[in-house]
Design goal:
By secondary structure, the protein is an all-alpha fold. The protein has two domains: 79 residues, no CATH class; 86 residues. Helix content is 64%, strand content 0%. It has five helices and no strands. The protein is elongated. Keywords: Coiled coil.
Amino acid sequence: MDERHGYAHYEQEWAAQKELRDELRDKPAEIVEYESRLKRANFTYNRADRYSQQGKHATARKLMAQAEKEYEGLLERLEEITAADPGLCVWFDRDTAGGLQSMNAPDPDSVPQVVTSKSRLNKTPGGGILQGKLDKRDVKIMAIENELAGIKLAKAKAKGKAPKLRSVENLLKAVRDGD
């Protein structure tokens, strides 16, 4: 097997990963708007929670009602944008089909998060459009594993490949161990 083949595979896969990262950076306008509205609703909800903790219950109730309206508006907008473009569903951490009906209570835990969110409320980090995202180390490991598979296949056909196989297996172990 040609040694450049494995490196070419690695370069091709890493280029694909860079394209995915560019796509994640350039979110559709609807997703950016959703994030902005979600941030505003979460801020209002957290203010209401804080006022409640301070014993300012009248203000807390007023802000909680406002937050509830913001979450409902957010979910209505979510239904609109996903109905207009179903491809946007991959940008969310959970099923967006339920909308208002799937929401138990109008709070931060009930609304879908954008998959690129680092929020603790993100239900499936690495889901949706992020599913194919790999770091550079994983791409290297994948390229080495593919090369190993090719070597094992060649070894099955002709017996002279054992030393190369061992050295590639050692390289793979070193990459996995972080050496």
